[in-house]
Amino acid sequence: xxxxxxxxxxxxxxxxxxxxxxxxxxxxxxxxxxxxxxxxxxxxxxxxxxxxxxxxxxxxxxxxxxxxxxxxxxxxxxxxxxxxxxxxxxxxxxxxxxxxxxxxxxxxxxxxxxxxxxxxxxxxxxxxxxxxxxxxxxxxxxxxxxxxxxxxxxxxxxxxxxxxxxxxxxxxxxxxxxxxxxxxxxxxxxxxxxxxxxxxxxxxxxxxxxxxxxxxxxxxxxxxxxxxxxxxxxxxxxxxxxxxxxxxxxxxxxxxxxxxxxxxxxxxxxxxxxxxxxxxxxxxxxxxxxxxxxxxxxxxxxxxxxxxxxxxxxxxxxxxxxxxxxxxxxxxxxxxxxxxxxxxxxxxxxxxxxxxxxxxxxxxxxxxxxxxxxxxxxxxxxxxxxxxxxxxxxxxxxxxxxxxxxxxxxxxxxxxxxxxxxxxxxxxxxxxxxxxxxxxxxxxxxxxxxxxxxxxxxxxxxxxxxxxxxxxxxxxxxxxxxxxxxxxxxxxxxxxxxxxxxxxxxxxxxxxxxxxxxxxxxxxxxxxxxxxxxxxxxxxxxxxxxxxxxxxxxxxxxxxxxxxxxxxxxxxxxxxxxxxxxxxxxxxxxxxxxxxxxxxxxxxxxxxxxxxxxxxxxxxxxxxxxxxxxxxxxxxxxxxxxxxxxxxxxxxxxxxxxxxxxx
Length: 663
Prior knowledge:
Elements: E1 2-4, E2 9-13, H1 19-31, E3 34-38, H2 41-51, E4 55-59, H3 68-76, E5 85-90, H4 103-108, E6 112-115, H5 120-153, E7 157-160, E8 183-186, E9 191-194, E10 201-204, H6 214-228, H7 235-248, H8 252-265, H9 282-292, H10 326-332, H11 342-348, H12 353-364, H13 367-371, H14 375-387, H15 398-412, H16 415-420, H17 423-435, H18 445-451, H19 454-458, H20 464-479, H21 491-507, H22 513-534, H23 544-559, H24 567-591, H25 607-630, H26 633-651
Parallel strand pairs: 1-9, 2-3, 2-4, 4-5, 5-6, 7-8
Antiparallel strand pairs: 9-10
Binding site for Zn(2+) 1: 400, 436-437, 559
Protein name: Phosphodiesterase
Enzyme class: hydrolase
């Protein structure tokens, strides 16, 4: 149903026309209110009973014509007046006379008093304040009374929906009895008017049901009625119901605070903090807007297609781990150290670090044994995956994948992580890290959505790249038995493994960043701290839900661990991601697309400021939480030093990656 309100009706009760009555008349005209004038108490009551005015203004300055209190009582004696605001106009008092009490007027039935003022604006202000205050409250009460009256008379199941036909679960009524065979829905697209005169409702349905297949419809309506008589509730509904119950016996201040809590709970962005204005912090706003939004939803004729055709001919001849050149093998000996330099490996392998590092790490974690696949199959698969990364990207290339894989393995070796996850979780994490950005076009989700790319259309502008990375990985893996690492595992085990891999890849999408971090803090960190503070020997819960949160947090931290690397690596990665964002801004301008991150203009951008914003907004809290769980003091020291480095550059007004050479 849709509750609509007709223009406000105002009744002026003045025995004669003067400047005050004219001022209220013109004020009503200015506010768009309908106005009637009555000169006697009898005509006032008659007019009121006919029109049911929301506001009545009674002249109380000249008692020789009529008693204003008597007129007010006559109107209050009628039933419609319970929803009416009655205003008394009183004379101005000389400055040397004491102010009179308003209590006699209130006892007579007046709602407010107005000291005479023939200014149209003063009268207008008084009327609109009444409209936005008491009148709107009375209107809502009348509408609620009408709805409840209709519901009391209804002998059928009633469902309340939004204008989009979405059931509003928290407002669902259970109307008994439910024995009837028909099922009705009160919908906001129905035309319903709360009638002022009769407190009743006129409803007109937009459609009517035909009489064909009546027995089938009866069964369907009865089934739906039974469903809505069940007591199944979503957790958020239970929370809202508990808060509503707590409000009933709470002081006004507490009830108002709980109202604000309910408003927050009913939003969809429960975990995203509110940013300062763009003027206050343009770097953070642009960075967050570019990373956490799926685009501006404005499509153009320009199209960016990211997926390229892959063929086995692009792949290098597989090598065994024993065939690795000595220089590369020596580098890989340091793989378990956090300071491992993946950029040196990139140079030594001619931009093919993922295959070499993948062989070393997968062997260390006995992935082939778990998947029952040969080393040759694993080698082919790693080369297939690495071949799908774009070496032309400055940041999102196979070196980044190798870096994330290295960080993932480092985290998996931490004692608390090892004790939390099982081997399937470890294998899923390593595979997810390897594939998490494959076929990345070097452009953000926002760019693809704004450009109307094939991928954005395919994935409905939602987690476009992350969905593509996961889907393409499984497509390519299944295409050739020589590189299908999943071909020998049990179907049920494969489904569990596949689900875990997909979940971790999707977790790298930034729109749900704060949701994942806050869930980890509330479900993992806080219970862990409580156990440690109580000095008990109780173990931390190791439920599937907790393992899921740990895996998401693990890959999220691995994906953006650059600020926690040694300074030189941190600087290099900052330069690479900045260059990729610069290239995107250049292309957006060239194609006439919305510029998602305007601060990443290569001619004006301050790289130190962008890094400071990224660390402040995304990194610090997340790694503090991860460090509290996994114990990573070395990483946190690097993070602190790197942050100081960017701060010093910013204080020097330096916009580049490094300090300018001394002049």
